[in-house]
Specification:
The protein has about 250 residues and is an alpha/beta fold. About 35% of the residues lie in helices and about 15% in strands. It has a single domain, classed as Rossmann fold (3-Layer(aba) Sandwich). Strand 9, helix 7 and strand 10 form a beta-alpha-beta unit. The protein is globular and about 45 Å long. It starts with a strand and ends in an 8-residue tail after the last strand. It binds 2-amino-2-deoxy-6-O-phosphono-alpha-D-glucopyranose. The site of 2-amino-2-deoxy-6-O-phosphono-alpha-D-glucopyranose (GLP) has 14 residues, from helix 5.
Length: about 250
């Protein structure tokens, strides 16, 4: 059963999730283990990443023992493309903290064999010991990562086609719709369900309807985020606007 927390605003939500991540990293470091984080992109996690950077700079939180796996990447974009998710992570988080680059994983947007890249990504997650905590946003189609409807509960890291709603939503970052890739590589719903803990963030009125659908309809492939209702340890962090229709 997933849990919902309505925060005063997105800054407060970001601080709460950052504190959870700090506690995980600290506990793992004490046990001489790596903390394995699943990371997300989009505008939603930006205040979270800003708070993690602050914890690093002002409170000495080290990411030396962190291994990260990002959810997804646009097909056809290399890591140095300004709209790639590898670039996003570099600009908004990695360059400000002491994470080892070799410990950071983002699916390769360009590869000779996408199926192989996806299978290798799943294998890398398993060999890291699985993901301890996955950060998620949500798309207005109900996507998590780039698992557009319909996405089966059993889906794994794979190549997907982007919904036109998603392409339009994300075109603001690209400047024009025609520049938005049609495909992506994304962890699957099963990959996300395997994460030991999930922290989903959703802010603003634009997310209110999909949050209602996600939490108040029967879990189904038509709203991939709704599968999270069955996750053993999943928290939805909302601001009052995203909570408006619950
Ligand atoms: C993108 C990402 C998702 C993200 C979603 C929401 O397409 N692939 O992981 O959750 O869109 O984006 P935003 O946070 O900007 O609303």
């Amino acid at each position: 059963m997933s849990k919902v927390i309505v925060h005063a605003d997105k800054a407060t939500a970001a601080k709460a999730v950052a504190a959870t991540i700090r506690d995980l990293i600290t506990a793992k470091a004490k046990a001489s283990q790596a903390a394995v984080l699943g990371l997300a992109t989009g505008s939603t996690p930006l205040p979270l990443y800003a708070e993690l950077v602050r914890l690093h700079r002002e409170e000495g939180l080290s990411f030396r023992n962190v291994v990260s796996f990002n959810l997804d990447e646009y097909e056809g974009l290399s890591g140095d493309h300004p709209q790639s998710y590898r670039y996003f992570m570099e600009q908004n988080l990695f360059r400000f903290i002491d994470i080892r680059r070799e410990n950071t994983h983002v699916p390769a947007g360009i590869s000779a064999d996408a199926a192989r890249t996806c299978a290798d990504y799943e294998a890398a997650i398993v060999s890291a010991g699985g993901i301890d905590l996955q950060v998620l946003g949500i798309g207005r189609t109900g996507h998590i990562g780039f698992n557009e409807p319909p996405s089966a509960l059993s889906s794994r890291t794979r190549r997907v086609h982007l919904d036109e709603v998603t392409r339009r939503d994300n075109s603001v970052f690209f400047g024009e719709l025609s520049l938005v890739p049609h495909g992506a590589l994304t962890m699957g719903v099963a990959t996300i369900m395997d994460c030991r803990q999930v922290e989903l963030l959703a802010f603003g009125t634009g997310k209110a309807e999909i949050i209602r659908k996600t939490l108040q309809t029967q879990p189904s492939a038509d709203c991939p985020a709704s599968w999270l209702q069955n996750h053993a340890r999943c928290t939805f962090h909302l601001d009052p606007e995203a909570n408006a229709l619950l």
